[in-house]
C-alpha cells in the first residue's frame, strides 16, 4: 500500500509511523527537550516523535518552527519525517533548514491506510509513502 | 526555478559563502512550493531568540556570522524572551540570559537592527501596496498583507534571515495574485467596542477555518476600525486559523468592494458574527478555580495608544496585593510612554512593564507559573489566550476594562 504526496523535500527515510487526527505545532504542542507531545488534550499527548514518521493533517501555530526543528534535530530528538495533509511555509522552511524530510498533500488520505506503529518508507524523489510492515 | 544572472553569481559564491548558502536554502524552499523565480524584498523582520533557537541555533548563528554574513536590506527582530532589566526579578535563568546577549551580538554583527518588537508595522516600517517583504511573526505578516496590501509569506527565522542576506525571497503564496483573493465572507454585525472583541472575532472566524490560504472577507461593519483593532483581529486570525491574509471591504486596499475582494468568485461560506456570538464565547471560558492573580496585556505588544488607554484605566488604582499585571511593549513606545507619563501611571499602580518581549515567549515561563502558583491567565488579547496553553495556563479572554478590574480586585467573574 502506498500514498502519493504532492510536494516533498529530503532524503528517503524509513521509520515507525505516528498518525495524528490533530494538527501540529513544534512550539505549542511539543516538549523540545524530550521530543514528547505535552500539550494537554492533544490527541498525541504523551507520545514521543523521536525518529518517527509523523502524519499530521494540518500545521498549527506560527513562525517558531523554523528554529524549533533545527533545535530538536540538534538535540537528536527529531522525527525522521513530517507527512502533512496541508502545511504552511514555516513548517517547510523549518524542515528544510533542519534537513528533515517533509511532504504535503496525500492521496489517498492515510486514515485507514496507515496506522500508528506501522513501519513506513518515505521517498520524496518518487513522491510516495509506502507501508512496509503492519504493526502486529 | 529560473535564476537571474545575479542569482547564479550568488550561487557561484560571488557574494561570499554566507550569501551562497542562504540562496541555496531559498532555492530548496522555492522549489518545494513550485516558485518560478525570486522577487526582491525591501524589508525583513525575523524571529531570533534563545528560547526558540536553543544551543544548536545559537551555534549555527555564531558560525554563520563568522562567515561574514551581512544583511543586504533593512532587517529587524521580533520580540524576544528576555527583558534583561527584569531577568532576576522574574527568576529567569542567568546562563540563558548570557546566551541571549551573545545571540543579539551575532545579529548586530550581521547588520540586523534589533528592534525586538512584534509591532514593527506600527512603529518601525510600513510597506506600501504591492511591496514585497519577508516578515516573521504571523501577526506582522497578516497585517502587512491585509492592511498595507504588501506581500509576504510567513517567514520563519532562518528563512527571513536568508532573505535579509540575499535581498530576495521565492515567489509563492501571498506574493502571487492567485492566493490573495477572498475565499469566504464574514458579515460583522456585532458592536465590537473593545480590542478584545476584535480578537474574539479572529478566534470565531479562525478556529473553524484553519488554513494558511483561507482568506476571510469582512464586511458590513458599523464603523471604520482603528489600527489597534485591526492588529488584534489579524493576530487572532493568524493564531487560531494560521491565516496570512484577510480583506475588509472599504478598509483594506485590495477590498474596494465585496466583489473585488472575492475576485469575482462565489464565497465558499457566508458567516455572520453578532453580539450574541461574542457574549456566548466570553461566557464559554472555563474559569477554573477563579484564580485571578495574573493579568497580561501582551501578544501583540502594546501601541502608544494602548499604553495611554491602560494608563487612564489604572490611574488612581492599585494592582491587588498578591496579584501581578504585566504589560509588554517595545523600546520606542516605552520611551514615549515614559515621556508622556503613561508608564509612570502604570508603574505607580503596580503594573510591571516589560520591554522588547512578548509574555508568552518569556524564558522560563513554565517555571514562573509553577513558582507563583498561577493557574489562570487573564488577557484582552485573544492571541495570547490561544497560545499560552503550552505552558499549562488556563487562559481567559476578557475586555480591557474587565481585565483592569480583575487585576485590581482579584475577582474573576
Question: Can you tell me about this structure?
Answer:
The complex is a heterodimer of chains A (136) and B (413). Chain A is an alpha/beta fold. Chain A has one domain (2-133): 3-Layer(bba) Sandwich (Glucose Oxidase, domain 1), CATH 3.50.30.10. Helix content of chain A is 15%, strand content 34%. In chain A, α1 (65-74) runs parallel beside α2 (89-98). Chain A is globular and about 35 Å long. In chain B, α2 (17-32) crosses α7 and α3 (50-66) packs across α4 (94-109). The model of chain B has no long low-confidence stretch (mean pLDDT 97). Chain B has helices spanning 5-11, 17-32, 50-66, 94-109, 120-123, 138-148, 157-166, 195-206, 227-241, 258-262, 275-283, 304-314, 331-339, 342-348, 365-372, 382-387, 400-409, and strands spanning 38-40, 43-46, 74-77, 134-135, 168-170, 184-188, 216-219, 247-248, 270-273, 294-297, 324-329, 352-355, 376-379, 394-397. Chain B starts with a helix and ends with a helix. Chain B is of the alpha/beta class and 413 residues long. Classes of the chains: A alpha/beta (136), B alpha/beta (413).
In a few lines, what is going on in this structure?
The complex is a heterodimer of chains A (136) and B (413). Chain A has 136 residues and is of the alpha/beta class. Chain A has two helices and nine strands.
Over the alpha carbons, how many angstroms does the gyration radius of chain B reach?
21 Å
Low-pLDDT residue intervals, each spanning 5 or more residues of chain A: none
Mind summarizing the main beta sheet of chain B? 5 strands, parallel
- Biggest contact: A-B, 37 and 41 residues
Number of domains of chain A: 1
Euclidean distance between termini CA atoms of chain A = 16 Å
CATH fold group of chain A: Glucose Oxidase, domain 1
Q: Report the top-level CATH class of the largest domain in chain B.
A: Alpha Beta
What's the helical proportion of residues of chain B?
Answer: 40-55%
| β-sheet strand percentage of chain A | 25-35%
Q: From N to C, what is the helix and strand string of chain A?
A: EEEEEHEHEEE
Instruction: Using the 3D structure, state the CATH architecture of the largest domain in chain B.
Output: 2-Layer Sandwich
Supply the number of helical segments of chain B. 17
Averaged pLDDT of chain B: 97
Whole-angstrom Rg of chain A = 13 Å
Name the beta content range of chain B.
5-15%
Structural class of chain A: alpha/beta
Amino acid at each position: 500500500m502506498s500514498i502519493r504526496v504532492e510536494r516533498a523535500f529530503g532524503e528517503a527515510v524509513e521509520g515507525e509511523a505516528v498518525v495524528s487526527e490533530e494538527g501540529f505545532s513544534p512550539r505549542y504542542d511539543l516538549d523540545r527537550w524530550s521530543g514528547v507531545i505535552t500539550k494537554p488534550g492533544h490527541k498525541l499527548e504523551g507520545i514521543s516523535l523521536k525518529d518517527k514518521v509523523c502524519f499530521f493533517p494540518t500545521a498549527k501555530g506560527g513562525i517558531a518552527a523554523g528554529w524549533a526543528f533545527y533545535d530538536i534535530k540538534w538535540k537528536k530528538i527529531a522525527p525522521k519525517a513530517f507527512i502533512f495533509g496541508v502545511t504552511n511555509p514555516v513548517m517547510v522552511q523549518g524542515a528544510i533548514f533542519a534537513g528533515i524530510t517533509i511532504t504535503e498533500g496525500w492521496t489517498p488520505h492515510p486514515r485507514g491506510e496507515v496506522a500508528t506503529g506501522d513501519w513506513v518508507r518515505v521517498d520524496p524523489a518518487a513522491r510516495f509513502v509506502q507501508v512496509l510492515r503492519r504493526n502486529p | 526555478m529560473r535564476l537571474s544572472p545575479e542569482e547564479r553569481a550568488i550561487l557561484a559564491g560571488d557574494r561570499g559563502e554566507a550569501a551562497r548558502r542562504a540562496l541555496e536554502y531559498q532555492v530548496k524552499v522555492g522549489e518545494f512550493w513550485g516558485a518560478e523565480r525570486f522577487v526582491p524584498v525591501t524589508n525583513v523582520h525575523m524571529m531570533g531568540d534563545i528560547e526558540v533557537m536553543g544551543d544548536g541555533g545559537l551555534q549555527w548563528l555564531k558560525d554563520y556570522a563568522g562567515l561574514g554574513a551581512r544583511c543586504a536590506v533593512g532587517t529587524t527582530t521580533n520580540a524576544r524572551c528576555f527583558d534583561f532589566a527584569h531577568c532576576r526579578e522574574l527568576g529567569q535563568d542567568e546562563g540563558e540570559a548570557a546566551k541571549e546577549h551573545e545571540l543579539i551580538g551575532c545579529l548586530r554583527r550581521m547588520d540586523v537592527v534589533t528592534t525586538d518588537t512584534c509591532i514593527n508595522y506600527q512603529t518601525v516600517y510600513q510597506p506600501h501596496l504591492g511591496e514585497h517583504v519577508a516578515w516573521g511573526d504571523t501577526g506582522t505578516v497578516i497585517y502587512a498583507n491585509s492592511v498595507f496590501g504588501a506581500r509576504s509569506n510567513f517567514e520563519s527565522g532562518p528563512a527571513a534571515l536568508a532573505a535579509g542576506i540575499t535581498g530576495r525571497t521565492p515567489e509563492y503564496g501571498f506574493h502571487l495574485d492567485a492566493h490573495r483573493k477572498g475565499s469566504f465572507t464574514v458579515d460583522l454585525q456585532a458592536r465590537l467596542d473593545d480590542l478584545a472583541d476584535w480578537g474574539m472575532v479572529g478566534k470565531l472566524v479562525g478556529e473553524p477555518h484553519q488554513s494558511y490560504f483561507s482568506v476571510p472577507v469582512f464586511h458590513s461593519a458599523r464603523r471604520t476600525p482603528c489600527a489597534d483593532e485591526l492588529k488584534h483581529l489579524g493576530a487572532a486570525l493568524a493564531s487560531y486559523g494560521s491565516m496570512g491574509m484577510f480583506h475588509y471591504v472599504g478598509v483594506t486596499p485590495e477590498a474596494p468592494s465585496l466583489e473585488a475582494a472575492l475576485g469575482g468568485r462565489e464565497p465558499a461560506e457566508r458567516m455572520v458574527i453578532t453580539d450574541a456570538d461574542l457574549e456566548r464565547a466570553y461566557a464559554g471560558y472555563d474559569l477554573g478555580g477563579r484564580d485571578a492573580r495574573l493579568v497580561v496585556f501582551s501578544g501583540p505588544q502594546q501601541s502608544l495608544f494602548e499604553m495611554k488607554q491602560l494608563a487612564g484605566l489604572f490611574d488612581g488604582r492599585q494592582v491587588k496585593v498578591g496579584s501581578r499585571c504585566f504589560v509588554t511593549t517595545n523600546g520606542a513606545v516605552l520611551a514615549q510612554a515614559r515621556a508622556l507619563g503613561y508608564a509612570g501611571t502604570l508603574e505607580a499602580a503596580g503594573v510591571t512593564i516589560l520591554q522588547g518581549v512578548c509574555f508568552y515567549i518569556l524564558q522560563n515561563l513554565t517555571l514562573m507559573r509553577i513558582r507563583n502558583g498561577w493557574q489562570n491567565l487573564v488577557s484582552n488579547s485573544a492571541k495570547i489566550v490561544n497560545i499560552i496553553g503550552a505552558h499549562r495556563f488556563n487562559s481567559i479572554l476578557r475586555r480591557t476594562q474587565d481585565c483592569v478590574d480583575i487585576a485590581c480586585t482579584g475577582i474573576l467573574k
